[in-house]
Amino acid sequence: MAPKEKAQQFTLKTPKxxxxxxxxxxxxxxxxxDTITSVFKRHGGVTIxxxxxxxxxxxxxxxxxxxxxxxDLKDQGGELCSLRYDLTVPFARFLAMNPTIQQIxxxxxxxxxxxxxxxxxxxxxxxxxxxxxxxxxxxxxMIPDAEILAIGVECLTALAIDDFVIKLNHxxxxxxxxxxxxxxxxxxxxxxxxxxxxxxxxxxxxxxEMIDEKGLAEEVADKIGKxxxxxxxxxxxxxxxADETLMANESAAAGVKDMEVLFxxxxxxxxxPKVSFDLSLAxxxxxxxxxxxxxxxxxxxxxxxxxxxxxxxxxxxxxxxxDVSEYVGxxxxxxxxxxxxxxxMFAQSKKKAVMPCVGISFGVxxxxxxxxxxxxxxxxxxxxxxxxxxAFGGGKEWTGFLPERMQICKKLWxxxxxxxxxxxxxxxxxxxxxxxxxxxAPLAVILGQEEYGQGKVKVKQLGMGENADEGTDVAVxxxxxxVADLLKA
Amino acid sequence: MAPKEKAQQFTLKTPKxxxxxxxxxxxxxxxxxDTITSVFKRHGGVTIxxxxxxxxxxxxxxxxxxxxxxxDLKDQGGELCSLRYDLTVPFARFLAMNPTIQQIxxxxxxxxxxxxxxxxxxxxxxxxxxxxxxxxxxxxxMIPDAEILAIGVECLTALAIDDFVIKLNHxxxxxxxxxxxxxxxxxxxxxxxxxxxxxxxxxxxxxxEMIDEKGLAEEVADKIGKxxxxxxxxxxxxxxxADETLMANESAAAGVKDMEVLFxxxxxxxxxPKVSFDLSLAxxxxxxxxxxxxxxxxxxxxxxxxxxxxxxxxxxxxxxxxDVSEYVGxxxxxxxxxxxxxxxMFAQSKKKAVMPCVGISFGVxxxxxxxxxxxxxxxxxxxxxxxxxxAFGGGKEWTGFLPERMQICKKLWxxxxxxxxxxxxxxxxxxxxxxxxxxxAPLAVILGQEEYGQGKVKVKQLGMGENADEGTDVAVxxxxxxVADLLKA
Lengths: 489, 489
Prior knowledge:
2 copies of one chain form a homodimer.
Chain A: H1 23-42, E1 46-47, E2 53-55, H2 56-59, E3 81-83, H3 88-97, E4 104-113, E5 127-136, H4 143-158, E6 164-170, H5 171-181, H6 188-195, H7 203-213, H8 218-228, E7 231-232, H9 234-241, H10 244-247, H11 250-268, E8 275-278, E9 291-297, H12 308-312, E10 332-338, H13 342-346, E11 357-363, H14 364-374, E12 387-392, H15 402-414, E13 419-421, H16 429-439, E14 443-448, E15 456-461, E16 472-475, H17 479-488
Parallel strand pairs in A: 1-4, 6-8, 12-13, 12-14
Antiparallel strand pairs in A: 2-3, 4-5, 5-11, 6-9, 7-8, 9-10, 10-11, 14-15, 15-16
């Protein structure tokens, strides 16, 4: 290898569907992580970290049709691995591997990978972050479920997102509806997938799909249509309870019982006003077994940038992996549900076959788009530097005080203060003020050619307009305490 | 997919060379990240996040012999990608893609991937974290270099690691030595690789490798041997300056000039006492062009656990990828150097061919082993829960106050306090105290069957021995303020 060989000629870019994060965007995203993490910890959450890739067989058979979107690692000898598709399956694998953990509230904030059709302006990427909180363990019915929904509300509220609704449904009620309407048992999951599209396409299209593509009888589809248009609160629960046909179904009755208990807890936790019990919510993933939910907001779909979204669907696929999925989803900023059987799929013995779980996952990229759109970016600082250390002087004898500036910075750093200086031996005052201004440092510490010899520096507040603060002389020995006090004020 | 099908029969594990992080280990590791991040920010660092995989051609030709350790993604149509091997090459790619960034102090804490022979007890994994700080831009010589070394000292000191030395050398001095000793120009990098092993094997072995494997003449090897045994501080610099043969070499003279300037700055930053100028330090990576350094500590190699390390070398490879690399390294906890030409390798035009960089990278897993060994793990809490909310009561009328406990928790959560309660409708006092004890919650808030009806709860300090605190009655309206004050005290 020789660095001096000719420059390389390939396109300089990140892989399709991935991007670099930098500058002020990173500040905003870190704030989102910090906010969500602090809510998670408030509820007793502990965090875990799993490898970014798993043995391929761990992921196999967990994602239904979406399995084709899994990224595989190349076979380079040894084990076959794939990049994780979500954080839920690795969590279930972790629980199955650690049978001594019988109860856990775990959170995990990390990247997941899907070979999906990227739609960057809508916040859909191939590499993206998920923030998951899950409660695993045998508990009395619906208590952890209620707390998970409370965490959902708290996180979004803490992120200053107020105009959201939690669409809530129960897989057992939905399965009961399909059964009483006459859907054959083996078709339930694919009919459920069709219903899942109702937030994006009208009923007529879903009905057509059920009949034309999934072979459902029209009168069965019509019966389903009557149910899935229902939404409401506790009132809807009462209407369903009055439906004797449905309530005669074992699955539906069990779901309704769960929902009754849940609504009591949601009232106690003040979550109920945010909830819409919505029989059209189905959720794509196969592993849910109890309540399911999605948080949606009017702000979920930010306006398209540069017209990209408008062209998306008309564009011809450019390469082989571009037409993997043609539907561009918008909508939910958080979602989840109860999955009582996923851990059992990994269990090595009958003994530890049951580990009920319920969880919620936040889509960071979508939250980011919403929050950034509301932010005054000119006021966001990329660095947190408190102090810019400068030197003023002139004449033949002037050294530029470079080692002296380093010594003053060292003092500030040792006191935990954030300080920078210009990497120049004899900088001009203007250059130093410009550099301080560029990063928005609130304070300057100035080493004057004469004053510094007398053990003094000048501390000056910046960003208040030219010469708004003439500065204060401070003894070098008292500098860090003085600066710390000023920053606290 | 049907979750109810038979349990799967493969081995439940994480891929070779990877592991899950959980519980108290996560707390300690998070603390390391927080400490390092706060030092990085103190120096004006901004963070970036790059994708976990890069286009394969970005990584090609950057790692010399180690390129065989790169993980490739499977070709599933579309672009060919590989997992990142370090954070430096992605940073250089980022800079080349963003030519408007002419100066940046960036840090990046993230996982990297190497298909290496794992040696877990020594903290060597296939998936591991690096914490990098790099300064890019055209500056006056050696100023950013000195600050990078100061950051190294500050980070390790902040992590309470005191017994470390920074081994320091300069590629130009080393290249000059090889040249004056008579190493043919095309053999410099491979002879340098041999020298790089001197911290692990004696000179006799390195000399043998140079002669037998790399075809060097014995008298050339002997001359090199005289140089690479030298170490010291500024004194060594003076000895080298007195070596007229070496100083007549252009490369060596340039390196010595750099080192003279650097030592002035290291004195100002109080880094000098930690530095050992060591002519045997070579560093494996090809892309270094200036100073190079490694932080080593006596604690770098923690004692082997379960005798695993002793068996490592005797074990026969079990699968195809087990014998990729046979040397098990110990030693450095941080390392880095100056690389002025890496960004230029990506430049698309002549114009922006130069972006000098200098950086340091901390090995988190090794720091973790050292810090964990010193920690009293029984005092580390896995959760940060402040308050356990309980209910005491009995008799026929006793409801268990579940919704009431939820309401109290909700109050505490809304005030930013960390609270949990038992997921049981009628828990016994003992069960609740045990649960609080298990997570080490410092406070209990108790809803008494009668008192709660009067708008009062009891706040009790925990973990002080049985009945050490009888508890204090507090009005529900004043609860959050009371608890917040108690936690502050």
